[in-house]
Amino acid sequence: MAWNQTKKRRTHKRKWNENKGLWQILFIGSIVAALAMTVAGCGQGGDAGKAGNVPAASAMNEGNASSAALESNAAAHDEEGSNVNFEIETGGKSEDAPADQGDPSVWINATAKLENERVVITGTTNLLPGAKMKADLTAAGYNMWGYNDEAEVGRDGTFKFDIKQPNIKEGTLDITISFVPEEQAGEMEAYGKDGGKLTGPYIHQYEESDQVYQKAVAFIHVNADPEKAGQEWRTEIPGEKPEDYGSPAVWITPVISFDGKRYLIKGTSNLLEGVKVEADVDIPDHWHFGYGESARVMPDGSFSLQMKKPDKVDTFYIVLKVVPDEDMPKAAKEAYGANGEKFDGELVKAEQSDQGSISVIQLKMKIKEEQ
Questions:
Q1: Cα–Cα distance between 295 and 260 in angstroms, integer?
Q2: Which domain covers residue 253, as residue numbers?
């Protein structure tokens, strides 16, 4: 009997514990439900707040909307500040286009000037409307990047470039304007995908992966002197090729000028386009470095480069050389030989290289300063 009473007490205690657990679950559930309702209420309040940020016209009647719109416009006007002067650029009128627009004998005329710390280039060409052109600005003796711009030819044949002026106060800023058929968005049948149909003195050749391409190029040389700002500088007029252009009997006629700090060397020759002309100084009884410069020959056989003046010497030599190498254009290799073995004339000089004996073109000029 005692065992039965004990069993009854255990059973009663177990039921009480189960009821207690059930009440705890119900109590916790009610708390969770209350919190959920509170959060939901807060969420509705947040959405109402967001609704207040929606344009006023969507939350007001018509009369209030008009008033709010006027206030909004007035506030926007105050925030905009004063009026700004601007100029609308157009593609021009087709009736103003050059008469030979689209002709494969391409020409490019342009002027450049320095204004408001910008290099502004404007010009006209007979390229087809929509043709993309590029302008790149460099300066001898400086490593430069990012000084370029692109433009499309308008219906009237005009174009414009606007490039930041580099912080260079002396010497020359060299501008190259180019039209490259290979880089156009779509093929222009008049010029050929590789530019093979282009003709005229503005046309230059270049090679990529042993394939020859053509492009139209014009040059402008701008005096970087700040006192020259406001003056206009025009594109160079290309010269005509000499009758013996490409002959292995090479001749070079240089003209040298001095601006007080640098020597400007302009040369004419019968060298083929793309051949590299190297220039350096030879100072007797002196070690020297850092004077070397180079330039590529233009389609008319001309070239130009600048060299800084050696310090503390009165007499020295400027040496111009053409050295055959693997980067020489294909046409030049055929005309002069891979090692220059076809070179002829009084400017030919034998030299030793890693490939053995080679022939180079060398022109050595003695410079003696007047006291």
A1: 22
A2: 239-371
247 and 339 co-located in one domain = yes
Q: Cβ distance 138 to 131 under 8 Å?
A: no
pTM of the model: 0.70
My answer on whether 273 and 251 are in the same domain is yes
Residue with tokens 């046409």: 331
- DSSP, collapsed to helix, strand or coil, labels residue 2 as helix
Query: pLDDT of 81-98, one tens digit each?
Result: 788 776 566 666 778 799
Pick the closest to residue 140 from 170, 164, 95, 118 (CA basis).
Answer: 170
The pLDDT tens digits of the residues spanning 21-46 come to 544 554 555 554 544 444 344 444 43
Q: Which two tokens stand for residue 298?
A: 């233009």
Q: What is the DSSP letter of 9?
A: H
Taking CB atoms within 8 Å and a gap of at least 24, the contacts of 129-132 are 129/91, 129/94, 129/97, 129/101, 129/153, 129/154, 129/155, 129/157, 131/179, 131/184, 131/188, 132/179, 132/183, 132/184, 132/185
Please count the CA atoms within 13 angstroms of the CA of 219 that sit on its side-chain side. Answer: 18
pLDDT at residue 69 greater than cutoff 60: no
DSSP assignment, residue 344? Answer: B
Q: Which of 76-80, 229-233, 295-299 has the highest mean pLDDT?
A: 295-299
HEC-encoded secondary structure of 303-336: EEEEEECCCCCCEEEEEEEECCCCCCCHHHHHHH
As for how many domains the chain has, the answer is: 2
Cβ count near 19 (within 10 Å): 10
Same domain, 193 and 205: yes
Cα–Cα distance measured from residue 223 to residue 146, given in angstroms and rounded to the nearest whole number: 20
Give which of 203, 213, 217 is closest to 105, Cα–Cα.
Answer: 203
Per-residue burial over 269-300, b if 16 or more Cβ lie within 10 Å, else e, is bbbbbbbbbbbbbbeeeeeeeebebebebbbb
